[in-house]
Design goal:
By secondary structure, this protein is mainly alpha-helical. It is built from twelve helices and three strands; from the N terminus they run H-H-H-H-H-H-H-H-H-H-H-E-E-E-H. The C terminus is likely disordered.
Length: 237
């Protein structure tokens, strides 16, 4: 097991100063119960800390990355990022299941892949890393595992891009936004819509979706990307 922890740190370019903290993050209470003669501690307290550190880190990222997003939207998005199913995805991406120290009973009942257990271990790991190295190291891990998923649209189902675009336009531009459906295709049970969003006469973005609303959201998402890059392009020219 010591070799696994060593390889894990090498792979993710982390070096724990206190190795006991790292092991503790992966130690389930069932393992402690079966090894009472040895000084093992479970990860529950680290999980408590990691939950708070994760919420703060994600909040800070959203606050800085999406200036046009309202408090309600940020709260909704953060909840989707730190919920159990998302934490399981992050834990699996880092192969946490292979490293958890489990009791025999928990092992036999499939505990190694149990969603709640994996989510708890991810939080405990974040808590351990924070205690060992501070917020900067936590941020580096989240920049590899969590934040790219936000940027590539893994949580787009909870993001209201139309509202964000409206606020962006009101703050930075003059003119009125207008959405148009360019095309409808496919049978009634499997329709696909193509929408575009215009600012005056200028097309800002197009999007597709299974409904008009979804197509408009994707068009607004593309428009936001376009508008944020536009000043940089003008400066280069």
């Amino acid at each position: 097991m010591e070799q696994k922890f060593k390889e894990f740190q090498e792979k993710h370019e982390i070096q724990f100063n206190n190795k006991k903290l790292l092991i503790k993050a992966f130690t389930h209470s069932s393992y402690v119960n079966e090894h009472r003669r040895k000084p093992y501690e479970d990860n529950e307290r680290l999980e408590f800390l990691g939950d708070a550190v994760l919420e703060l880190s994600v909040s800070h990222y959203l606050f800085g990355t999406y200036p046009q997003m309202s408090e309600g939207e940020m709260t909704k998005l953060r909840a989707a990022i730190v919920c159990e199913p998302s934490l399981v995805v992050f834990a699996n991406e880092m192969n946490f299941g292979d490293m958890i120290l489990l009791g025999k009973g928990e092992e036999q009942t499939g505990g190694r892949m149990r969603p709640a257990l994996l989510a708890d271990v991810f939080e405990a790991f974040v808590g351990a890393l924070y205690l060992d190295q501070g917020m900067d190291s936590v941020k580096k891990i989240l920049e590899k595992v969590v934040f790219p998923k936000i940027e590539t649209g893994a949580f787009s189902h909870v993001m209201d891009y139309k509202s964000q675009l409206q606020e962006f336009i009101q703050r930075n531009h003059s003119g009125t936004l207008q959405y148009e459906i360019l095309k409808e295709k496919g049978p009634a049970h499997n329709r696909e819509f193509i929408s575009r969003v215009l600012l005056g006469e200028e097309e800002l973005g197009t999007g597709t979706g299974r409904s008009k609303k979804e197509a408009e959201q994707h068009a607004a998402e593309k428009a936001l990307v376009y508008l944020k890059k536009k000043p940089e392009q003008q400066e280069k020219e």
